[in-house]
Give the backbone structure.
Amino acid sequence: MPSLPSSLLNPRLSFSLKPLLLFSRSSDGPRLFPIPSQLLSKKPRTFSSLASVQSSATANGSRSSSSGGSGGRSGALSPSPVAEVVQRIDVNPPKGTRDFPPEDMRLRTWLFNHFREVSRLFGFEEVDYPVLESEALFIRKAGEEIRDQLYCFEDRGNRRVALRPELTPSLARLVIQKGKSLSLPLKWFAIGQCWRYERMTRGRRREHYQWNMDILGVSEVTAEAELISSIVTFFKRIGITESDVGFKVSSRKVLQEVLRCYSVPENLFGKVCIIIDKLEKIPLDEIKRELNATGLSVEAIEELLQVLSIKSLTKLEEILGGAGEAIADLKQLFSLAEKFGYSEWIQFDASVVRGLAYYTGIVFEGFDREGKLRAICGGGRYDRLLSTFGGDDVPACGFGFGDAVIVELLKEKGLLPELNLEVDNIVCALDHDLQGVAADVATKLREKGQSVDLVLESKPLKWVFKRAARTNAQRLILVGNTEWQKGMVGVKILSSGEQYEIKLEELE
C-alpha cells in the first residue's frame, strides 16, 4: 500500500485536517492511502506541528523502503470515520426576549399602527435611530439604575458601544447633530426596540418596543398637555377608559422647593429624585437610609416624605405657597386638561418624580387603576438634556410608552383584538399544466391590489378548501381545463357558496 503523497502534507495548511479516506483510481481498483495518525488529532495543529508531521512521515517512509518493506506503514487507519453528532440547539430565544410568530406579529402590527395613527393625528413626524449607540450616550447621567442595566461591550474597533435602553438620548444626539438646520418646534415620534438587563416581572422584559413622542422648542405647559392628550386618544382608540387607567402628575420643581428650604446642594437633586422614584419598590426605611447617605438631614428627610405623600394640589399650595413655579405649572396643566377633555384621567401625586436624571419640570405616569401592573407609560419635561451632551439647551418634553405592559392590560380587560390571517383570494390550478395560468391570474389580481394565496403544488380540492378556511379567504379561484379552454376561470364566494365562471380580463 503506498504512503500518503507529500503534497497532502503541506505545512502551510491553515486548517486542521479531520479523519478522511483518500482513494486513487487504478486498473486494480481503488487503493487506500493511510492517513498518518499524527494528523488525526482532535485538537487543531499549528503550522510547525504539521511540518514536523511531514518530516516524521517522510522519515518513516524512507526507513520502510530501506528495510525492503512494501512501502506501507504499520498502524494505518483501518476503521471507518465516525459521523459527527450534531447537537440540537436550544430553540428558545434568549431569556427576556421574544419571538414574534405570525399571530403575535399581527398583534404587534395592530398596536404599532395605532401608535402611528395617533402620532399622525397630532401632526408628529416619524424618526428612528440606531439600536447600537455609543455607551457614553447613556452613562453620562450619573446615579441612574439604567447604567447597571446596559447591554454594553467593546467592538472590534475598541469602541465602547451599547444597545439602546431608551430613545430620548438618541433624540438629543440627532438634534445636536442637525443643529440650526432644524426648524423649531419639532414634533417627532419613534417606535424602537430597547434593551435593558433587568429583573423580569409581568410586563417587564429585557427587550421591548417603545413608542416615544417628543416636542422640542416649546417652553409652555401646553406641550405636556398635548402629549397627555395624545396618550388618552390612544387609550380611547383601543377601548381603554378613565376607569381602567389614570395619570399621576407632579413636578420636579416641587422637590426642588422643598430641598431649597433645607439648603440641599443643587448637585444632589438628581440623586434624590432617583431614590424617591423607588418609593413603591423598596421599604421606606431603606429609602430613608439612602437619602441620609446623600447628606440630607433627618429633619429634611421627614419633611420631604411628608410632602411626597400629598395627593391634593390644594394642600400642596398650602405648604409651599402659591408663588412658586411648581404650583403655577401644575395649575395650568389641570386647567388645560379641562379644555382637552381629559380632566377625569389625571390626578396630582407628589411622589411621582420618574427615575431618569434629566427631567426638570412636570412629570407624569400612566397607571393601571387596579394596581396589578407597573407603570404603563411615563414622561415629562427635560429642558436641560442637550447641554449634558455638549449642545445648546432647547425646551423639550416627551414620553415613552412600552408595548409589553399595554398588552398585559388588554389581556386583563379582555380587550385583545381577534386578528386572524385574511387574504382576498386563493388561486389553484386543477391541472399541473395550468400552473402557469394560475400564476398569471394571481399576478393580475395582485396588480389590482388584492392579496392572493397561490397554491404552488398540485393539491386535492379538499386540501385547498381547508387552506382557504385557514387563511379566511374571501373567494376561491379555480383554473381548470374546461373553463380555461373558453378563456374563463371558476370563482367560488366562500362566505355565501355562490359559484360562477368569468373571463380572466373581467375578474376584479
Summary: The CA atoms of residues 18 and 86 lie 16 Å apart.
